[in-house]
Protein: Transcriptional regulator
Amino acid sequence: MAKLVEDAHPVDVYVGSRIKLRRTLLGISQERLGDALELTFQQVQKYERGSNRVSASKLYTISEVLDVPIAYFFDGYGGDARAEGLRDSSSPAFEHEQLSRKESIDLLKAYYEIEDSKVRRKVIEMIRVLAGTASEAGNG
Structure:
């Protein structure tokens, strides 16, 4: 996980990472999001790093632009991200870290480009087999 911005509140860091995740999943550049919000791309960067707090009204606008409910930005937040348990693989923070990686985002984008739901299920089964979790392949 990227190093936390010193003195940034963990909620600001988490919300910023959720903004970045959604923006990236939609294929929107920081510049394009900034234009939609009447901000510079540098301000978007600061929001995404958590070094600047997002006001309630700006978060509302961001939720509209990124087409998600405001609750999306807090989903999975489990407390102080600086806590020792951050790297516990069962924690929401660890899960969010994994989902925020570029390779995870690329995989998700490619997965949802598969129109046939049966093929998508087969892809999941194949990945589970490759990962050594074939016993879970029937779940889901």
In short: The chain has two domains: 1-100, 102-140.
